[in-house]
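Re: that chain you flagged

S.,

Sorry for the slow reply, it's been a week of failed gels. I finally had a moment to sit down with the sequence you sent. For the record, here it is as I used it:
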Amino acid sequence: MKRVFPESVKWLLEKFGKESIAVRRSPALLKILEARQRTLNEKIKERPKFTWRMPQSRLASYKYPSVHEFLQSDREEMIYYLPQFRGQGDLEKFIKKYNGFWNNGRQFSCRITKDSDSSVLIKKTKRLFEHRVKEYKECERELGCIKTFIKNLGLN
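Prediction finished late last night. Pasting the structure tokens below so you have them in one place:
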């Protein structure tokens, strides 16, 4: 089945009122809403729980294995010494590349600051968890709207 995007469902919900004859007689709309319901139910199956572990993190594990291991651990911070850092330029590149929040693909959030000329302090942040909680709540809210919409239309 074709993927249903939340924006399109939101548009449908806003565009058509419960009095619309087109909506009442639209099996296609009902299929779209039911598909979206299934997707949302799958997404909210389990409420996000806080942990320092970031098991889906993707950080060039072959290049920085100890950082990769740290991101997947319970530890909150680490000092990472990299002998190949050749002064300020290399440190700045590493900080610029990996500092912050990565949800798409890399799945981690941390703050990286210079510790010395050849090391950085990496502190995990709660930003990834907060992002997941926000997504979870948005899915719950959208699912509630769809259920109410279907019920008010008498389609189920």
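What I noticed first: The CA atoms of residues 75 and 101 lie 17 Å apart.

Talk soon,
D.
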